[in-house]
Design goal:
alpha+beta, five-stranded antiparallel beta sheet, 2 helices, 5 strands, rod-shaped
Length: about 140
């Protein structure tokens, strides 16, 4: 039977072994962190898009009840059933001119992401996701 240690007189790891482990962890981190940030941004954008859809549905509900859209988020909350997400910056709602009523547009974005702002125009029925111009404060009519 062998009763002597395989590594006589040495305790611990060598410097090369420790550096190898640190390099491997660094490589894994360099791969994982950007992927994590992309997934996080995608999730925050999905929350903002969902909030955009909620505003649109509340406006359409208000249109069927009152016959026109509202530029006031408080009215969308009380009459349209909108639930305000505290993590979203809501921009002002712009109503169409008397010639092209009923029409509305608005902009919103998630507070935590710096990349995507969602703009919706009911005239073209397009939701546009773009970077650049961001809403950095809530519209005064957004209830707390």
């Amino acid at each position: 039977m062998l009763n002597y240690p395989l590594r006589k007189g040495r305790a611990g790891f060598t410097l090369v072994e420790l550096l190898t482990v640190v390099v491997i962890i660094g490589i894994l981190g360099a791969i994982a962190i950007p992927k994590y940030m992309n997934y996080r941004r995608s999730a925050l954008d999905a929350v903002a898009k969902s909030a955009c859809d909620s505003v649109i549905k509340a406006q359409y509900l208000l249109l069927t009840e009152k016959g026109n859209y509202s530029a006031d988020y408080s009215e969308l909350v009380t009459l349209g059933g909108l639930v305000i997400d505290q993590d979203i910056y809501y921009g002002p709602i712009n109503l169409g001119t008397p010639i092209d009523l009923p029409k509305f547009s608005f902009t919103l974005n998630h507070k935590a992401t710096k990349s995507t702002t969602f703009t919706f125009d009911s005239g073209s029925q397009n939701m546009i996701a773009k970077g650049g111009d961001r809403v950095l404060f809530n519209d005064p009519t957004v209830p707390n």
